[in-house]
Queue: 2 jobs
Job 1
Amino acid sequence: MNRTLTPLNGASLTHSQIVPSQNIANWFDRQKLALPAQRSTTATAHSCFAPMHYESGYAYPLIVWLHGPDSNEDELRQVMPLISTRNQVAIAPRGTGRVESGVGAYRWDDSVDGIAEAGERVADCIAIAKQRFNIHPDRIFIAGHSVGGTMAHRLGMEFPEQFAGAISLGGGVPRGSRLLKHINRVRQLPLLLSVSPAIAGDVEGDVGNYSLERVMDDVRFLHCAGLSLSLQLYPAGDELTTVMFEDIDNWVMEQFCPSNASTAS
């Protein structure tokens, strides 16, 4: 079943963007107390997600979410209910560059300076989450969609000791900028790549045009580097589905609680 998300920037939709859902807004109206997504008053703009029935005595896993193209940190409000309403705390920083063609639209710059800035924003968000919530220090995951997923894998490989895993939904594996300079430590970092390969006829050069051939090239690259990769393939052309998000929850839980992952929700 496809589950689609509401655009957050007021801009017109492109093929690579997530598109509107009729159910998300109603769900949030019913769960406002349980899911207080909050905006930042600090230098790093962000949104936060608190799980339902939050227990301060329990150390929660943390998901740091990097939004997709032409979006912003409020994407977290729609993503986390599809992953889990109770298993993780989550926080999302704003992208590093403004998209001039869209109101409230941001991107992740893949330049040297952009990568460094993204790393700083993620580090700030982790610190903010730790101040507000009881976060397990060894259960911090970085995840994202499309270009956000590519940046999530890059930052995971840049700072492997900070994360328990890095997750990309439909974002190609990054290249360049000395990606594997910490290769021995990166080999200890679990990676998840969830992909619905682009269908024939997609526009060449579209950020969503992640073909099966490109997927297999990325898998070979990671395999040759000796990295720990879980690859999840979904029917071609489905883009984002509820199953993809549910599988993120299962994969995260499996990293530290394998016996209970199948029963988590």
Job 2
Amino acid sequence: MYIDLGTDAVIRDKEIIGVFDLDTSTVSQRTRDFLSKAEKKGEAKTVSFELPKSFVLCTGKNGTQKIYISQLSASTVIKRSKGI
């Protein structure tokens, strides 16, 4: 199944490793460092110009990681991935 995350970002549900709420997960310095490094490596993509609410960690090609920063809440992404 495919999930629409926002502007030109559609992913397969099987590629999702985790869905994280930005408000609660970025409290940790480790998470902020992880996202910062991913942005510098070009592994993170913001999929909307609206206020981001979640990020989705996915497997990319050849075992790489890809992070999508989305305006959708984490619960909305999870519901879409389950077809609810």
